[in-house]
Fold:
Amino acid sequence: MSPEEFANEFGPEMTPPPMADPHPYGIPVHPIKPGLTKRGRAAVAVAATVIAGGGMLGWQHYAAQQATASVKAQEIALKQQELRLQELKAMNDINAANQKTQTTADAARQKKVDACVQDNKGLVGKQLGATYRSVLEDCQAQYPSSSTGQDMQEAASSTNSGGGGVNNGLLIGAGVLVLGTGIAVRNKARNNTHGHYA
Structure:
């Protein structure tokens, strides 16, 4: 028996496996670099630019809408103040007209009462129980005060709790305040509009 036959016959029954190939698909031509490729980096840059630009445009649009809404709210408040001012002025005019009507009606009544007292003054002391006071009360009962004017005065005093009507100086001051507020709102709106899109 030759040594080779002996090794085959009595040699180890298991042979070691062949060494695993580290490159089963062949040796690479160039080394692999970790990270993104040029295309990947360009895509990330484009996406970041689109997101940043869209966010900036969205914010500008939002800011412009907020400014417009603020200006509209201020204009509505300004118009409400103007309407309130006109209402106060109308109430003042009505109060003045009512006061003038009441004053003329009261003056006419007083003239009639005075004339009645002059006519009946001769009865004092001549007729039983006739006194100056009773003659005056009879004449006042004969010419009662106008209830319409009194009702108007009561209605005016209930709507105007101040009791003295609206002061003209107050009306002028409120008008100047409303006008100044309107000019300030318009200037602010103009500055906001030009500032966002310049």
